[in-house]
Each structure stands twice: as C-alpha cells, then as structure tokens.
Amino acid sequence: MTRGHSLPEHTMTMKQFLNYINGEFVATAKTFENRNPATNDVIGLVHEAGRAEVDQAVAAGRAALKGEWGKMSVVRRAELLHAVADEINRRFDDFLEAELADTGKPRSLASHIDIPRGAANFKIFADIVKNVPTESFQMSTPDGGTAISYGVRTPLGVVGVICPWNLPLLLMTWKVGPALACGNTVIVKPSEETPATATLLGEVMDKVGIPKGVYQVLHGFGPGSAGEFITQHPGINGITFTGETRTGEAIMAAAAKGVRPVSFELGGKNAGIVFADADFDKAIAGITRSAFENCGQVCLGTERVYVQRPIFDQFVAALKEKAEGLKIGGPDTPGVGLGPLISAEHKAKVLGYYAKARAEGATIVTGGGVPTMEGEYANGHFVQPTIWTGLPESASVIREEIFGPCCHIAPFDTEEEAIALANATDYGLATTVWTQDLGKAHRVAAAIEVGLCWINSWFLRDLRTAFGGAKASGIGREGGVHSLEFYTELRNVMVKL
Predict the structure, then answer these.
(1) Do both 79 and 147 map to the same domain?
(2) 430-434 vs 452-455, strand pairing mode
(3) Exposure pattern of 307-327 as b/e (b: 16+ CB <10 Å)?
(4) Are 241 and 162 a contacting pair, CB within 8 Å?
(5) Is residue 325 part of a domain?
(6) Catalytic residue chosen out of the listed positions 163, 182, 299, 406
(7) How far is CA 420 from the centre of its chain?
(8) How far is it, in rounded angstroms, from Cα 423 to Cα 406?
(9) Same domain? 254 vs 119
(10) Is 244 considered catalytic here?
(11) Are residues 46 and 115 in the same domain?
(12) Does residue 466 form part of some domain?
C-alpha cells in the first residue's frame, strides 16, 4: 500500500479516487478506470482495496466504537450529522459535478433529487434518533415486590454498506445517515462505476470533525474484491445492500456465517396500472417518468404497464409521443430528457433485451435501438426509449428486470385481472396505480404484493415511512423509525426494586 502523496509520477496527471481509511486517503497498487458514461472518456483511476485494506478499515471502525464516537452523546452526534448535511450543501456544486461525471444523468435531475436528498438523509435521521422513545414497563414480582424494565437501543456495530450506481449519493446516504445517527461505524463500498461522491464525502467527514474510523470508503468490485471481502469479514456486524437480487443472495450466504443481519433492497419488475377512470394526462406524465427517468435505471421504475382496455390504444399512442419527445444527450444538453446508461456492459445488456423482444414477436411501438449521437457524445452509452406491445406474459422482457428506458404495455379488463397481472412476478418492490376511484385505489393497494404502492403518483417519498421490498425484492424495512430496527440492537434492562 502507498499513501496518496507517494503515487507513481505517471499517474499523477489523472484524477485519483482513493480509499478512505481511518481518516486518511489511501492509495493502493491496483487501480481501474472510471469512465464518464456520456462520453466514454476516462475520468480517473480508482484504487482497489484488498483484504489488507478491509482488515484495516474494520479495525478502525471497531476502535471508533470504543473511542470518542462510541462515548458521544446522541445530541452531539446529531449536531455533527447536521454539520455533514450543511457541508454537502456548501459544496453542492462539487458533489453535483462528481455525480454528473460518474452517471451522465441530466443536470436538472441530479441537482433536484440526488444531491439535496443526499444531504437531507443526514438531517432527518439525526432528528429521528434524537426523538424516538423506547418502551418501559412496571410489573409485580412473585415475592410481592416490583420490577421495572426498559429498552435501550445500542449500535449494531461496524456496518458494511454496499451501494448501487444509479443514485450513488442518495442511496448511499440513505443507509449511512441512519447508521451513523444510531452510533454505528460504516464501511462503504460504492459501485465500481460511481466512486466519486462516496470519496468526496470523506472530505466532508474530515472537515466537520467526524472521528476517524466512523466513515470509511473502500473501492473495488464484488466477487474476489472489496465487496466480497467486506461481506465475508467476521468483524462486520451487519450488511445493508441495494442492488441485484442475485448479488443479494450471495451476500446473504456470506452473512449466514456468524448469523449477521442483512437489510436488502433488491431487484424489481414493477407494474404500473392505469384504469380507464384515471386522469389521463396525469397518468401519461407519471408513467413517462416512471418508465424513462434516469434512463430507466431506477429500481422503483415501471417496466410493465397495464392499461384498462377502453383507453389502451389512446394511452399507447400518447406514451409513444412522450417517449419520442425525450431529447437524448449529456448532462448539459439543452432540454435533455434522457441521459446514458451507466456503462458499455449495461448498454449491451439492455440492447440484448431489445433483441429478445424482437425475437419473441413484440410490436415495437417506438425505439428498440441506438440513437445517432454526435460530437463529444458519439461514444456514449445511449439507447432509445422503447415501448413494446403484443407479448405474452411469459416473454423475457416482461419477466426479467432490464433496468433500461423501456416498458411493455398490455390491456386488461377488470380490477381483479389487473391485480393478478401485477402480482404474477417473483419480485415485489413497488407499483403505481392511476385511478380517480378512491375505493378502488385502496382495494388495489391492499391487494398488490409490494413494499410500496403509489396512488396517482410516482417517486414521491416521505422519509419517515417504511421502505423496502417484498418477495425477491428484499428483506427488511428502512426509513424513519423502521431504520432503527436494523441499525440498532434493542436491549432490555430489568431492574428489581
């Protein structure tokens, strides 16, 4: 291992994404490229952590639990987390540029969602932890005396945070915020595709005085790299992960050794249900967002759309018009509505599904290919927003998560049929339902097997509420007081008077 100031001379001209261990930025001998998905240009070199770095980070995290951080009052801890949020906002432009370079998403999207929510996650969980009570009971004892029992929440310990690439800062702080608010230390493994904002957050932690070892970042991949080494390490007390279901299964198997808890938000194949009585214009606007926002790279996005038959043809035509009206380009393309996919590998995956849809006999309403891009975006990872109809429910693009700007639209006749279609999947993350019939809205919401059901909306969140998936879409709930169930151990203290 070499420190940042000892980097070989030939690498100094490139941006370096270093690991952040025990309050120091740490270089390693093994690096890999970080590329801008909009241009395919190399942004810089990412320093891959190995077992030695993981050992060091775990040791530092455990030491912090026994040191200043572990002894710190809840009030002081909350003050520091508010300071973290304030510093993110002070350096808003730095975080924004880092996020744009990593993801290529439209500037308007990242500036209104990713960075503000990334900061807010620290404040809201700090305030929740300050104000959440525990239970207390008084009882009579067999000898005629009295006993009092009360609950005490203690930190889980060193928490491994394995993050996705689609909303890097937002989804990372969604986990780091409550973990730190509860008094844990964290080791963050950002996606190898998006290392920038997690690294930058290390500078913020140092600036506001978060003790060493509390927040740490290790870069790398999954199997045979930092991700696997973190999840297998016996000094990791729990693992929280957002990403693909198959990766979640591998992490769960690793966590079984030592019986360590996990919190998972995994894949989805989310349904959108549009009833004939819906506000048509609002439904079209909502499904356009849920199918195509962030180039479809949203775990809560809609890839299956079911539209009641009387408005089916009208809906397909209107969504086609909206999709074709999305301007494709880089973060600062004027009027951009659709950015790139995250990588060449993911582009190949999405185009593979586009080919499968054609092979399986889909009617291609629009898209299905690659747009012609010019100038600096000529080599970017762009695909066309795509709509299909006409496929059976057994088709690959209806059964499997694609994570691209695409959806299949199918008609239905009855409420019961819509519910059955929505539930006919191994996944159960989210759904969005469009109707002006209040009774129907509540019935459908109760019947669909998901963790989150939106009525006449999409991507609307109250951070105090429970968030998570059902079936193959995850384990556990985070958000508000529900995050405490994972990030703390509830200890009962019994006192005989």
Answers:
(1) yes
(2) parallel
(3) bbeebbeebbebbbebbeebe
(4) yes
(5) yes
(6) 299
(7) 28
(8) 20
(9) yes
(10) no
(11) yes
(12) no
Structure tokens at 437: 């019939």
Degrees to nearest 5, angle at CA 397 with 407 and 427 = 90
Is there a single domain that holds both residue 222 and residue 299?
no
Q: How many domains does the chain have?
A: 2
How many beta carbons lie within 10 A of that of residue 43, not counting itself?
18
DSSP single-letter state for residue 332? T
Whether 357 and 368 have beta carbons less than 8 Å apart is answered as: yes
Amino acid at 331: P
Looking at 265, 293, 303, 478, which residue is catalytic? 265
Say what the pLDDT of residue 145 is: 97
Residue 468 within any structural domain of the chain: no
**Catalytic annotation on 299?**
yes
SS3 for 451-486 is CEEEECCCCCCCCCCCECCEECCEECCECCCHHHHH
Q: Please check whether residue 345 is in contact with residue 371, taking contact to mean a CB–CB distance below 8 angstroms.
A: no
- Please give the backbone phi and psi of residue 427, each rounded to the nearest 5 degrees, phi first: -95, 165
**In the prediction, which pLDDT does 3 show?**
34
For residues 191 and 284, membership in a common domain is answered with no
Residues 46 and 159 in one domain: yes
Q: Using N-to-C axis directions, what is the helix angle for 92-103 and 196-208, rounded to 10°?
A: 160
Query: How far apart are alpha carbons 286 and 18 in whole angstroms?
Result: 40
Q: Is the pTM of this model over 0.70?
A: yes
CA distance 350 to 21: 36
Residue stretches of the chain with pLDDT short of 70: 1-12
Whether 119 and 89 map to the same domain: the answer is yes
Asked if residue 207 is part of any domain, the answer here is yes
Distance CA 119, CA 254 (A): 31
Residue corresponding to tokens 């904002």: 197
Supply the pLDDT for residue 13.
72
Could you tell me the two tokens for 132?
């959440």
Cβ-based neighbours of 310, under 8 Å, separated by 6 or more: 276
Parent domain of 108:
2-266+473-496
Token representation of residue 246: 């198959």
Are residues 335 and 396 located together in one domain of the fold?
yes
SS3 383: coil
Task: Look up the CATH number of the domain holding residue 255.
Answer: 3.40.605.10
pLDDT for 201-254, tens place per residue? 999 999 999 999 999 999 999 999 999 999 999 999 999 999 999 999 999 999
Return left, alpha or beta for 224; rule: phi > 0 is left, psi -120 to 50 is alpha, else beta: left
What DSSP designation does 222 have?
S
Q: How far apart are CA 161 and CA 389, in angstroms?
A: 39
Range list of H helices, 22-140: 51-66, 68-71, 74-90, 92-103, 107-109, 115-131
Asked if 407 and 302 touch (Cβ cutoff 8 Å), the reply is: yes
The span from the CA of 204 to the CA of 92, in Å, is: 11
